[in-house]
Amino acid sequence: MRTTVLTIAMASLTCLAAAADTSAVELNVAGILPGPSSGTVYVSLCSEAEFMKGPCALKARAKADAASLSLKIESVPPGRYAASAWWDFNDNGEMELGSYGEPLEPVAISNDAVGVMGPPSFADAAFDVPVTVPVALTFK
Fold it and tell me: Which of the four pLDDT bands, split at 50, 70 and 90, describes residue 20?
């Protein structure tokens, strides 16, 4: 019995320590033109391995019903990340792409990073977590 109680206590402390090693990241998204059917804004925090390569593990979404939105992603481990936002105009849950794979719906990248003949680099978009100010993303 004593061993069981000690094991449970140690497991609880381990969980608390793991939770203390994470941060919440607030993302402020601007440049939204709300209307009667404005769609949904999706935001992602991506590690370098995930950036522009597929779905990122850390994400949030909100209805595009205001000119700007504030979204929060909880339990983010410390590290280097880049943020991206995608505005799904038609609310179909899929990014519309052109014939060359370019997005046809608005996207925004942290640090206003812009690519030349392709996506921006992770280095241009990256920031460190924990971060003390909201990360800004602006649709242009």
Answer: low
pLDDT at residue 117 in the model: 86
Task: Please say whether the beta carbons of 47 and 55 come within 8 A.
Answer: no
Q: Is residue 8 helix, strand or coil? A: helix
The string of pLDDT tens digits covering residues 80-102 is: 999 999 999 999 999 999 999 89
Tell me if the pTM is above 0.85.
no
Q: How far is CA 60 from CA 8, 65, 74, 93, 116, in A?
A: 33, 15, 10, 13, 27
Domain with residue 119: its CATH number is 2.60.40
Residue 119 forms part of a structural domain: yes
Count of domains for the chain: 1
